[in-house]
What does this fold into?
Amino acid sequence: MKIRKFALLVSVVAVCLLLLTLQSRGYGASARDLLALVTTPVQSGVARAHRAAFAVWDTYFDWKNARAENRHLRDENQRLRVEALRVGETEDENRRLRRLLALQARLPLTTLSGEIIGRDWGGGIRSLTVNRGRGDRVPRLTAVISPDGLIGRIVDVRLGASIVQVLTDPASTVSAHLVRTRTPGIVEGDARGTLRFKYMARDAAGIEIGDVLVTSGQGELFPRGIPIGRVQAIDDRGPALFHYAALEPAVDFARIDEVLLVTGETRRDLAAYFATGG
It folds into this structure.
């Protein structure tokens, strides 16, 4: 190892002496050319290596900055999406509450607003839980409505909540009639979580798809004129005593969040306060 270092040192000294000799004897230009011939490739290589090293560093730095910026943008995008959802939910809630308060203000009877805090599923919505109970002096069989129409009745009153039997419950029945023809009948829930209208066979010819049904007010449980639903299909049973029509409920029981409890007298016709489309 020492011999190699010594040989390298001797070679460098020899080259330097050679160059000095050539320069002192008038061969300076040739010496410079020879030196340039030797050193230029080395300098070029060093310069290229320098540029390459800085290029690699710049690329790495740019990649690191881009990665950090992308992460920041993803976080910001997620935050904005969540914020947009919150704003949309707030706007929907405000719109629903405005509709509910507008209905409550114009109805000619006493009502109590409530919020749905639970749903019982079983082949469809069977019941709802509202945050009004004995502390609010809610009586059993109180009618429950929304700006879209009839929801059902209170069947169980508890300390801080009540259970609402919705129209689609198989045990639910409501007297009703068609707005267009005044055909009377009974709206029943069934095990499939749907509604059907049961009416006398002689009225079958007067019922059409799209007809609107409202409460008839019989029995003094529900006020008259509250929308129940629309006719979707007609079940013609020939000479049978009763025919049936499948209904589309006026209220989406799976999405309703705010309701009104009819706590005052029910001997009123509310048809003028709902847009039945009939």
Summary: The two ends are 108 Å apart (CA to CA). The first strand starts at residue 111 and ends at 121.
